[in-house]
Amino acid sequence: MGAAVCFGCAAIAFGPAAALLLLTVAAEPLRIIVLVAGAFFWLLSLLAASLLRFVSVQLSGREDAAPLLPGAAAAVLLQELGRFACFKLLKKADEGLATLSEDGRSPISLRQMAYVSGLSFGIISGAFSMVNILADSAGPGTVGIHGDSPYYFITSAFLTMALVLLHTFWGIIFFDACERRRAGGLGLVVGGHLLASGLTFLNPWYEASLGPIFILTLCTGLCAFSTAGGSFSNVLKCLSCKQEPEGRVVLYSAL
């Protein structure tokens, strides 16, 4: 039973991310490089957050005296700072690739970099938040035997799935806002990240945290879709699976 719970929660948490990774990233070497770069910057932000908490514990003299809410807010801000550093690096890389190409165009667009880096942020963040839970779900033991919620593992898996998707959407919106110098997009990403992290403090009242986080994921996904240039007509064309005929010019000889 423990193995079934472990594999089931892992499939829920990382199934959409694995599908996106295999279908849109794995076949492109440049996208894999961007994926690794994004994960590296997220790890740097995690290191900075850990050092910040270590310093706060040393100054207070007690490990339980370090406040959780300000620490979580600082970790969120450090992650967004790492996302900005990733944007600056990928922007420079995009310019370098454009100068090396024959036609003056980069082989990978900035929007593709935004999507892949956001996906990498989500995967590595979800892995760090879920790996210990998956290890505990394998057993031995029974969740809820002492009166706790028996839905801890399944709700943690859904929260991780939402977090991975949110980071992907945030990456698209964040890069576009940095490229076009729009403070509203940056505020949307930072505010949404702070809201999602703050809602997790309502656990184990899962009804109050899981529902709003999925609503936030849906709204952020629609915003990212619009930011990337998507439209409802494009969705209908994709679902209809109809290919538009290519325009061809036929020249007839006068002879």
Give a description of the structure:
It comes from Rhipidura dahli. Component of the gamma-secretase complex. One of its GO terms (cellular component) is gamma-secretase complex. The chain crosses the membrane at residues 29-52, 113-131, 151-174, 186-206, 212-232. It is found in: Membrane. The protein has 255 residues and is an all-alpha fold. It has one domain. It is built from eight helices and no strands. The protein has helices at residues 2-25, 29-60, 68-100, 110-137, 152-180, 183-199, 206-227, 232-240. Helix 5 runs antiparallel to helix 6 (183-199) and helix 5 (152-180) runs parallel beside helix 7 (206-227). It is globular, with a radius of gyration of 22 Å. The relative contact order is 0.13. The model is unreliable at 246-255 (pLDDT under 50).
Tell me the number of structural domains. Answer: 1
**H/E topology pattern:** HHHHHHHH
* Percent range of helical residues: over 70%
Q: Which parts are unreliable, with pLDDT below 50 for 5 consecutive residues or more?
A: 246-255
Radius of gyration: 22 Å
What separation lies between the terminal Cα atoms? 81 Å
Number of helices: 8
Mean pLDDT across all amino acids:
85
Structural category:
mainly alpha
Largest sheet, described in full?
none
Shape: globular
The total of beta strands comes to 0
Strand content: under 5%
